[in-house]
Write a structure and sequence with these properties.
The complex is a heterodimer. Chain A is an all-alpha fold. Chain A has 35 helices and six strands. The chains are: A mainly alpha, B alpha/beta. At the A-B interface, helix 26, helix 27, helix 30, helix 33 and helix 34 of A face helix 1, helix 7 and helix 8 of B.
Chain lengths: 824, 492
């Protein structure tokens, strides 16, 4: 705002302000502290703070601290004419007059107003800081504009390159150094290394989500050299169990489920292929950029790389299945309005893509400009336009009843194979029809039945949930209040303005045949026509500030139970900034350097000394660190972590020796207890097809994910809600979990099975105890523990001490123990 | 006390050393109870002001009962029987796909209405029992919602938003106010196992209706089962006696204390506290659900159905027993109120289930002096249309969904009795203001679900604008981003 304009905008206050501005210039030498303390502080106390205090801020405005007025943006330092405060005390606007005309309080005198103006004109120096934490980031100004502050937000800066004198020859040691850099000023040192047993358990649960084999613990206890550790990590990363663990994280991030949600919660056909695709991608260490490109634009990759089912069957299949990504959203089969519902579905895709990949809450800009982050409503619709060529999930409908799905699946065969089969089928039908025409009455009904079956027959090819080859995309308009009946200007694909400003446009591409050219105005010369494939490549371009950071942060989180950016799904203003951005950037840069290898990142992290620290936090372990950093936000120790739902269930199957080897294929439905059936929604139950008992003992990742009905054991231990992207499951500790472990049938059956193994093994209680402890805790029992179990046995009648039921109770006690549920 | 749990733990440990205790078990136990207390406390600064109600019983009628046949007396409709609904009344109202494009003919209620109580309120003959307590009830005739289908409607009523994934009212209360007791959950959901009026059209219930959304899941409602164990896996497995189970729990406790001494992490202590809560629930829940100590006279009040497990009558009595034992929020669901056809017959059946227990609950609370600080609310997710849907004969008709106006009733907890709030037009189709003009404004006594929620929070001493939780980039609250209001006029 320049001087002339501010004068031009003056009304009644004109001459006065001119004078004040003059004054402030004259008094530029006056120390601002002195001016504030002698003139402004008393004025505010006397005239304003009675109502506008930090504690009870009338209208949400506190004038008791700088944060108070800053938060509500009532003062624009240096610009009294732009400051709401001045307009209010001058009674310039009828809707906001302070003190209110009807309050009985006297208006500010001209002198008082002038003092305030002078103070603001000179920069509104204010040394008072808030005692009360003022929650929340700053609301954006109404007129959307990318500000200096936006551009300097930490998350939008290019990923920093490591500076400093010595770059160690060991990339993992740099992690340790970066952590020490933050600890040193606090006089804190990293905790010592965990014991070999703890390390092996930690590594297994981290990479496989399964308990360590007792033999592996023993081996590492014998040789816990650096070499042995690295070999262990390599071995774990090579196993298919790795993808079954880490693929599941991805499924959380993209709110994977195999049903649609809502009342009927219908099945999403063949969704399990997407789950297998994810697991397989992790196992093969598919570069993350490829992984994203396949999911966001598999159909376009097929065209670009000329993939085909005949020539490149595996690549082709992956590209088809990966776009099942677009079909995972919640879907309403009976919406009030199908057009609105289609936009809801696209919104779900936008929210998930923004959150899971970029850590952005861009979904907030659907109905209005983002309230906090630098994303306008126009940005939202420009991004939405990327996805318009995807067939809608559901058919549009008018009139009553539900609706069916659209083109959401396809056969995993060539068009040719399909048409050959269809032609043959047609011939078969015609032949049979001809036969019926000449058949006698007695044969007719049987043949007609055959005909019916023939007509119902599906082509004998596998199918996948996917997007089909692109359609004529619909035009995208900015929608006032997000309402499709209020379209505003038409928009075309473009990167959000913020990124364009950072030099990150989508690559310009030749005209696409099906696309109506948007009319470009001068202001829109930054706009380009781009595809989903361009978008995927944009995400993983080396200049993109978010994608690598977000992924690195997520991976760190699952190695430490605590992320570097504590809000893994939100890197915007409403998230929490990292305390160690150097560490985050180092990991992100390494991702780039390794060609987006996630397995390399695991090695990098797990081979650091930091990863191998002890998690202990008793007064005997690193007490000096507790007060400076009780939250361990700087990573002076590892964290004690509770097993997640899947690991709790899978570990029991390992201990009972029942875990089957399922590693792909259709999902498994566990047996629901009568209690659950009794109260479950009948519609949810109607498509719950309980699997044969032996199939049920698979890893939890292969259990069906039904939005309205989760496996009760998994659900009670905080399984993902599967409705919205989830970067970190809340770990809760509630009484019903304990009841579940105490009394649930699944736990009971596993306990019996384990007890049976103990009884077979030995007749001696001490041997049984030792064996049980090795199995469940991967260590020997201690003297007091043995005594506790012996005491328990002693309390049973003499004849019962060898009973299966008594030993089942002992096993069950170990499965209820915290040592079972927590990893050091 | 606002220390980090780890710091508290260290302080306690040093105190323990100072006192030269030798048993680690004691230290752990002290800390366990300390942390349990912390875990059960509500937010700092809550309640914001002195509460009028300590607890809430919410009777949810799933499927949406017809206000026209129960509460909202429209004597003028008989003269308009089977006439088309005037277009200006409907005024571009969105209707469900089921009645879109069909003729809309007016259907007066075939049930008789008569005046009751000192207040002289008109009540339907379907509700003889509830009619005896009208002087304790406040009827809001001007409830409104945006939802037009059940899923969205129920979700909005239970969580304040049509969008799935928001915390429920009960979860907000647990989060804000903490718990009143150590032996039972703060938020209990009771599902009725059967309903007499309509077996076919069953409205689904989902755990997300009592879920926590983005709040920590420890605030989740615990749904009691309508059959079998009241709480999932409360009973010991068959063949395991209580005595042997106790011995096993003793063993678990010992193992955990050995481990806690070794590890020294406060998280472990929280787990121990919750396990102990679970053990206590194994005793407290059977005691709660065992009605043998309930006097015959009280059981009689609720009617004969009270003897049936899973009946609405029994659930109302259980709700009172829970309220007595310090459960903050009890939500009782009754289903089968979606009467698109054969409404009269279905209504008779439904009211047989609920009428007597409704009245009994009010009387029972009153006799115990608990009505003063227990807020009772009864509502469906929306209302029903004045025009008929399906077959229309002298004795038979149906009604479609209607979000523009419906009736809820409240009692106790600082709410005035014997009053009505809000007005509807002669068709019970639109909310109207003092001058008979159609309105949706709060100033004209229209009450949005968010306003009802703001009022409920207010009675519990909570300023709805200040009960927030930061999630998805916003300070989220139960009453949403639009302005919501406390309905001061109904507060005594």
């Amino acid at each position: 705002m320049n001087y002339a304009v501010s004068i031009g905008s003056l009304k009644t206050a004109g001459p006065c302000l001119l004078l004040v501005l003059g004054l402030s210039m004259l008094s530029a030498e006056e120390p601002p502290e002195q001016f504030f303390e002698t003139q402004i502080r008393p004025l505010l106390i006397e005239r304003c703070i009675t109502c506008h205090s930090d504690k009870e801020p009338e209208g949400g405005l506190s004038l008791e601290s700088r944060q108070g007025w800053d938060k509500r943006e009532v003062i624009v330092p240096g610009q009294p004419a732009q400051s709401l405060l001045i307009s209010a005390v001058r009674y310039q606007d009828e809707s906001l007059q302070m003190p209110p005309a009807d309050s009985g309080l006297a208006r500010l005198s001209d002198r008082e107003v002038q003092l305030l103006e002078r103070w603001i004109a000179a920069g509104a120096f204010d040394p008072r800081s808030s005692e009360v934490a003022i929650a929340g980031p700053k609301l954006r100004a109404r007129q959307f504009k990318i500000t200096e502050q936006d551009i300097s937000h930490w998350a939008y800066q290019p990923v920093g390159e490591l500076t400093g004198p010595q770059i160690s020859h060991d990339p993992s040691a740099i992690i340790d150094r970066l952590i020490d850099d933050k600890l040193k000023p606090l006089g804190v040192t990293r905790s010592p290394q965990a014991t070999p047993r703890e390390l092996v358990r930690r590594a297994y649960f981290d990479l496989w989500g399964l308990p360590a084999e007792p033999a592996a613990v023993e081996a590492f206890q014998r040789d816990s050299s650096e070499q042995a550790w690295r070999a262990l990590i390599d071995r774990l990363l090579e196993s298919p169990h790795y993808g079954q663990r880490w693929g599941r994280y991805w499924l959380d991030w993209v709110r994977f489920a195999e049903t649609n949600g809502y009342e009927r919660d219908g099945i999403k056909p063949h969704a399990w292929r997407y789950r297998d695709y994810v697991i397989d991608s992790f196992n093969r260490d598919k570069p993350y950029d490829r992984f994203l490109a396949e999911q966001l634009a598999g159909d376009l990759l097929i065209a670009e790389e000329q993939l085909s089912v005949e020539q490149t069957p595996e690549l082709w299949k992956e590209a088809v299945i990966a776009t099942g990504y677009y079909r995972l959203h919640v879907w309403d089969d009976e919406p009030d309005d199908t057009e609105a519902a289609e936009l809801d579905d696209l919104d779900d895709v936008m929210v998930t893509t923004g959150t899971a990949i970029m850590g952005l809450t861009i979904g907030c800009a659907r109905c209005h400009d983002h309230k906090f982050d630098p994303f306008s409503q126009v940005d939202y619709y420009k991004t939405l336009d990327l996805f318009r060529d995807i067939d809608p999930y559901g058919q549009s409908k008018k009139g009553g009843g539900g609706r069916g799905t659209g083109r959401i699946t396809r056969y995993l065969c060539s068009e040719k194979e399909l048409s050959v089969w269809q032609a043959q089928q047609q011939q078969r039908i015609e032949a049979l029809s001809a036969q019926i025409a000449v058949a006698n009455e007695s044969e007719k009904s049987g043949l007609q039945e055959q005909l019916k079956q023939l007509k119902d027959q599906q082509p004998p090819f596998d199918q996948a949930l996917t997007v089909n080859p692109p359609n004529q995309p619909k035009a995208t308009f900015v929608l006032a209040r997000g309402d499709y009946q209020s379209p505003q200007q038409r928009v075309a694909v473009a990167a959000p303005e913020l990124f364009v400003g950072l030099g990150l446009k989508y690559p310009v591409e030749d005209e696409r045949p099906n696309r109506v050219q948007p009319q470009q105005t001068a202001a829109e010369d930054a706009v380009s026509i781009a595809t989903r494939l361009d978008f995927a490549r944009w995400l993983t371009s080396s200049k993109h500030p978010l994608t690598a950071r977000v992924l690195a942060n997520r991976i760190w989180l699952n190695h430490f139970g605590q992320a570097i950016v504590p809000t893994p799904d939100d890197f915007g203003y409403t998230g929490i900034a990292p305390k160690n951005i150097e560490l985050l950037d180092y990991l992100a840069a390494q991702l780039h350097r390794s060609g987006w290898s996630i397995k390399q990142l695991h090695r990098l992290i797990m081979n650091s000394q930091a990863y191998r620290m002890s998690s202990r936090a008793s007064p005997n372990d690193n007490p000096a660190a507790v007060n400076p950093d009780p939250d361990n936000s700087l990573f002076w120790r590892q964290n004690l972590r509770r097993l997640d739902a899947e690991a709790i269930r899978d570990a029991m199957l390992v201990y009972s020796g029942e875990l089957n080897s399922k590693s792909s294929g259709p999902s498994v439905y566990s047996t629901l207890s009568p209690e659950i059936r009794e109260t479950a929604n009948p519609v949810s139950l109607s498509n719950w097809h309980t699997s044969p008992a032996d199939q049920q003992n698979c890893r939890s990742v292969f259990l069906v994910v039904k939005r309205s009905l989760k496996d009760p054991l998994l659900e009670s231990f905080d399984f993902a809600n599967s409705h919205s992207p989830l970067g970190q499951r809340l770990i809760t500790t509630v009484a019903p979990q304990a009841l579940m472990l105490l009394n649930d049938r699944f736990v009971q059956q596993r306990s019996e099975r384990i007890a049976g193994r103990l009884l077979e093994r030995s007749a001696e209680s001490s041997t049984r105890i030792e064996h049980l402890w090795q199995l469940v805790f991967q260590r020997s029992s201690t003297q007091p523990e043995q005594a506790s179990v012996e005491r328990f046995l002693w309390k049973q009648s003499a004849g019962a001490r060898s009973d299966l039921s008594v030993w089942t109770s002992i096993v069950r006690a170990t499965l209820n123990s915290n040592e079972y549920m927590y990893v050091d | 006390m606002s220390d980090h749990p780890l710091q508290q733990y260290h302080r306690l440990q040093s105190r323990r050393r100072f006192l030269n205790h030798t048993s680690m078990g004691l230290g752990a136990a002290v800390l366990g109870s300390l942390l349990a207390k912390r875990a059960s406390a509500g937010l700092e600064g809550l309640p914001h002001f002195p509460p009028r109600a300590k607890r809430v019983i919410f009777l949810f009628m799933g499927g949406a009962p017809s206000q026209l046949d129960l509460y909202d007396y429209k004597p003028g409709l008989e003269a308009k029987d089977k006439q088309p609904l005037p277009d200006d009344v409907r005024d571009g109202q969105r209707v469900t796909a089921m009645t879109e494009g069909k003729e809309k003919l007016i259907q007066p209620s075939i049930f008789k209405f008569s005046q009751h109580g000192d207040c002289g309120r008109y009540m339907s003959e379907l509700l003889p029992h509830l009619s005896t307590v009208v002087d304790d009830l406040c009827f809001i005739k001007s409830m409104r919602t945006e939802a037009i289908n059940h899923d969205e409607g129920k979700t909005q009523m239970c969580t304040g938003s049509q969008i799935q994934g928001k915390p429920s009212l009960g979860a907000w209360l647990s989060y804000g106010l903490g718990s009143l007791n150590q032996n039972l959950p703060d938020f209990i959901v009771l599902n009725s196992a059967f309903w007499s009026g309509d077996q076919q059209n069953v409205q689904a219930l989902y755990s997300r209706l009592w879920g926590t959304g983005y709040l920590p899941s420890k605030y989740q409602g615990v749904a009691f089962q309508s059959a079998g164990d009241p709480v999932l896996f409360l009973s010991n497995p068959t063949g395991v006696s209580r005595i042997s189970r106790n011995k096993m729990l003793d063993l678990v406790t010992r193992l955990n204390h050995h481990h806690a001494a070794d590890v020294g992490d406060p998280e472990i202590q929280t787990t121990i506290a919750q396990q102990e809560m679970a053990f206590r629930m194994q005793a407290s829940v059977p005691e709660l659900t065992d009605l043998r100590d309930e006097p015959e006279s009280v059981k009689k009040l609720y009617g004969p159905e009270v003897e049936k497990t899973g009946s609405f009558a029994r659930n109302c009595l259980l709700a009172r027993r829970m309220a007595e034992r310090g459960v903050r929020f009890v939500q009782v669901f009754h289903r089968g109120w979606d009467h698109h056809s054969a409404l009269p017959a279905k209504m008779r059946g439904q009211c047989k289930d609920v009428d007597q227990p409704w009245a009994a609950l009010i009387q029972d609370l009153k006799m115990r002096g608990m009505l003063d600080d227990t807020l009772v609310i009864c509502s469906g997710e929306f209302g029903r249309t004045v025009y008929c849907q399906g077959k229309q004969t002298a004795t038979d008709y149906g009604r479609d969904h209607h979000p523009r106006c419906f009736t809820a009733w409240l009692a106790g907890g600082g709410i005035k009795g014997g009053i009505e709030h809000g007005r509807t037009d002669e068709y019970s189709y639109n909310i109207i203001d003092q001058d008979g003009q159609r309105t949706t404004r709060f100033e004209d006594d229209a009450v949005h679900i968010n306003d009802l929620n703001a009022t409920i929070l207010n009675q519990l001493g909570i300023d709805h604008r200040r009960l927030t939780f930061r999630a998805q980039g916003l300070d989220q609250r139960l009453t949403g981003v639009e302005e919501a209001h406390v309905v001061e006029k109904i507060i005594s």
